[in-house]
Amino acid sequence: MLLYIHIPFCDSKCFYCAFNSYTDKFHLKLEYMKALKKQLKNELDNYVLKHNKEIETVFIGGGTPSCVKAQEYEEVLNMIKPYLIKDAEITTEANPNSASYEWLETMHKYGVNRVSFGVQSFNNDKLKFLGRSHKSKSAINAIQNAKSIGFNGINCDIIYGVQGDTLESMKEDFKQAFSLPITHLSAYSLMIEEGTKFFDRSSVKIDDEELSYEIFDFIKEHNFTQYEISNFAREKKYESKHNYGYWEHKEYLGIGAGAVGYVNKRRYYPSKSIEEYIENPLKMDYEAIDLEDIKTEKILLGFRCSNGVALSLFTQKELEKVNHLIENDKVLQKNQRIYNKNFLLSDELALYILE
């Protein structure tokens, strides 16, 4: 079982961000953390302890977890500790401007062993264009600090496909990332989503599939292996176990306002409103996921990453299409699983088989 904890506070709202996060509700932080601990205890008791399960990975995301004082996480992480498997991966997201040396050091002391920095770019003009609140220098310092403190895994997020991006400008971003002690890289193509400042500005996004292929090749040349459409690792051991859990359709607890959980073939959703969540953190909306939906998700997610898809999932009619893809060198069959050879085609391949 996985555990996701959502922190909905941010220093600033990036122009592309559609996550449940707020820049004007810092006065609710303490009450929010109290409510979060109440929900966490309830779910640990009802889902983990009651059914004798273990927590394999923990991911603290947002928002910006580093907006909340590290000391506020001590009780949260102590509550989780009895249920963790040995050497569990515990990740926190962090923004370079708020992840001070002291914050990182304290989180590491509490048991967090992996940190994911929302860098997005090392170009200060691009950072300003995206609405980021940090500068390149603070991102470099934060990554170096994490290494000196002793984090096992350090991820760097980079966004591409932004107005003005070229292969050469992106190479400069990646070269800077590779010069730092990162173990993992997430390279995301900019998405324009409703409710963001960029939503009515379609010109800010570059739709250039060739650029994606060139970027992927450049990253691979620097000894980072692609194991999902947006994720690359320096070595197998640095791949995100938490993300793999989602892709393998494992159950996960979702703690916090705007989080999502998945248990007993049901997704559940705590309130997105911070005020409503504080008032009643145990109030949930539920959505049943039927077997056909689960199958579709397993195929879509399996083709997006190096997990692949079990042959046993497909009907006879679907297997005929799978064989057609094998004959055309689009997918590979190995040990009763089908593997996608081009992650950028993952959705198209899945839809071709399922239609």
From TrEMBL:
Pfam families: Radical_SAM
BP GO terms, sorted: porphyrin-containing compound biosynthetic process
SUPFAM superfamilies on file: Radical SAM enzymes (SSF102114)
Family matches, as InterPro entries: Aldolase_TIM, Coproporphyrinogen-III_oxidase, Elp3/MiaA/NifB-like_rSAM, HemW-like, rSAM, rSAM_sf
Alphabetically ordered keywords of this record: 4Fe-4S, Chaperone, Coiled coil, Cytoplasm, Heme, Iron, Iron-sulfur, Metal-binding, S-adenosyl-L-methionine
UniProt GO cellular component terms: cytoplasm
Residue ranges that the Swiss-Prot or TrEMBL entry lists as coiled coil: 30-57
Residue ranges of domain Radical SAM core in the record: 1-228
Molecular function, one GO term: 4 iron, 4 sulfur cluster binding
Cofactor field: [4Fe-4S] cluster
Localization terms from the record: Cytoplasm
Source organism, top-level taxon: Bacteria
NCBIfam families per UniProt: hemN_rel
Homology family: Belongs to the anaerobic coproporphyrinogen-III oxidase family. HemW subfamily.
PANTHER family in the cross-refs: COPROPORPHYRINIGEN III OXIDASE (PTHR13932), RADICAL S-ADENOSYL METHIONINE DOMAIN-CONTAINING PROTEIN 1, MITOCHONDRIAL (PTHR13932:SF5)
Function of the protein: Probably acts as a heme chaperone, transferring heme to an unknown acceptor. Binds one molecule of heme per monomer, possibly covalently. Binds 1 [4Fe-4S] cluster. The cluster is coordinated with 3 cysteines and an exchangeable S-adenosyl-L-methionine.
Name of this chain's protein: Heme chaperone HemW
Species this chain originates from: Poseidonibacter ostreae
Lineage: Bacteria, Pseudomonadati, Campylobacterota, Epsilonproteobacteria, Campylobacterales
